[in-house]
Design goal:
Its cofactor is Mg(2+); Mn(2+); K(+). GO terms for molecular function: D-malate dehydrogenase (decarboxylating) (NAD+) activity; magnesium ion binding; NAD binding; tartrate decarboxylase activity; tartrate dehydrogenase activity. Its EC number is 1.1.1.83, 1.1.1.93, 4.1.1.73. By secondary structure, this protein is of the alpha/beta class. It folds into two domains: about 1-105 and about 275-355, Isopropylmalate Dehydrogenase (3-Layer(aba) Sandwich), CATH 3.40.718.10; about 115-260, Isopropylmalate Dehydrogenase (3-Layer(aba) Sandwich), CATH 3.40.718. It is about 40% helix and about 20% strand. Helix 1 runs parallel beside helix 10, helix 6 packs parallel to helix 7 and helix 8 (about 300-310) packs antiparallel against helix 9. The radius of gyration is 20 Å and the shape is globular. The structure holds adenosine-5'-triphosphate and magnesium ion.
């Protein structure tokens, strides 16, 4: 994608700590924008569980139409205890992912300098890979149902839907991503011994795609042993690709081996760029700490860096990550979840001022 210097960003702070960390992400974007000559226009909406309580829906009907021409969506967190998860999820997040055809969910798993992994003796050189998850089809489908409720014969059926087009495009994304990386390696996650229709199909498509990329090394594991390898051999991986369900599992396990949930970023990507992609931290609205000004803003700020890179501003993205590492190295600037005492705004300000000083 070619870089423009005027970016229109839709911001959705959402619920809970989303409203505290999104402003820090914007503060950092403004700072990096001044340094790299990028002008941001932020168009903010209050779509959230609060909006739902007032209007009976998570966002206005056709609400997404106003953002179709935007460069990206910058989201905080959505979800609140009194509102059922399926309402917030199917009322806001899933419509955005599906309407904007964000069929790749991308999570970097990278141990930042200054953070520690729960895995003993593992440093930044051991943990540096991406999880690529299929984001719109597969196991998370509405096809299926329940029969004979309340009887001895009661049963539930849930269908998975894997299309050649859907599988091929996410595999292609993974192979192209591997090409941009020094190790040039793709690992596929399946479970073809237990799930005998969809998973062998995925394996076949993986083999076909591999033939197009002779420069990329490949490996394949069943999801169960792959989870074990994430913990025991994180240094084996470069780009790991999986279906909606397996990718979902790996994309939580990955950030867990790279330290605190408060710092992990993610991207919902529309690789063709015909609609905006969406960038959001991995964590949720964290009701237990919301409103206290103590949430870690780094997951949001790192997501802003992914957004910059996606929009063609790799230098600006690198500057944000370098500033995050500088700030984390100083225990006084860390938030509580990382063992420090700094508040959300203090941590965000520190990162912005390192960028401005650079
Ligand atoms: P969701 O289901 O919306 O993904 P969740 O209910 O699984 O979210 P979170 O809201 O992410 O979970 O919170 C999980 C725990 O992590 C909570 O104890 C929360 O306080 C903590 N946490 C999450 N994000 C942060 C953050 N940015 N800074 C500090 N602690 C955080
Ligand atoms: Mg939750």
């Amino acid at each position: 994608m070619s870089a423009t210097n005027r970016l229109k960003i839709a911001t959705i702070p959402g619920d809970g700590i989303g409203r505290e960390v999104v402003p820090e992400g914007m503060r950092v974007l403004e700072a990096v924008g001044r340094r790299f000559d990028i002008a941001f226009q932020f168009d903010e909406v209050d779509w959230s569980c609060d909006y739902y309580k007032k209007h009976g829906r998570m966002m206005p009907e056709n609400g997404l139409d106003q953002f179709r021409q935007h460069d990206a969506v910058f989201l905080g967190a959505v979800g609140w205890p009194e509102v059922p998860d399926h309402v917030s999820l199917w009322g806001l997040l899933i419509p955005i992912r599906r309407d904007f055809n964000q069929y790749v969910n991308l999570r970097p798993v990278r141990l930042l300098k200054g953070t520690t992994s729960p895995l003993a003796n593992r440093g930044p050189e051991d943990i540096d890979f991406y999880v690529v998850r299929e984001n719109v089809e597969g196991e998370y489908s509405e096809a299926g149902g329940r029969l004979y409720r309340g009887t001895e014969n009661e049963l539930a059926i849930q269908e998975s839907i894997f299309t050649r087009r859907g599988v091929d495009r996410v595999l292609r994304y993974a192979f192209e991503l591997a090409r941009t990386r020094p190790r040039k390696q793709v690992t596929s996650a399946t479970k073809s011994n237990g799930i005998i229709h969809t998973m062998p199909f995925w394996d076949e498509r993986f083999a076909a795609m591999k033939a197009d990329y002779p420069d990329i090394a490949t490996s394949q594991y069943h999801i169960d042993i792959l989870c074990a390898h994430f913990v025991q051999h994180p240094d084996w991986f470069d780009v790991v690709v999986g279906s909606n369900l397996f990718g979902d599992i790996l994309s939580d396990l990955g950030p867990a081996v790279a330290g605190s949930i408060g710092i992990a970023p993610s991207a919902n990507i529309n690789p063709e760029g015909d609609f905006p992609s969406m960038f959001e931290p991995v964590h949720g609205s964290a009701p237990d700490i919301a409103g206290k000004g103590i949430a870690n803003p780094i997951g949001q700020i790192w997501s802003a860096a992914m957004m910059l890179e996606h929009l063609g501003h790799k230098d600006a993205a690198d500057a944000v990550i370098a500033a995050m590492e500088t700030v984390i190295a100083d225990p006084a600037s860390r938030t509580r979840d990382m063992g420090g005492k700094a508040g959300t705004a203090e941590c965000g300000e520190a990162i912005a001022s390192v960028i401005s000083a650079g």
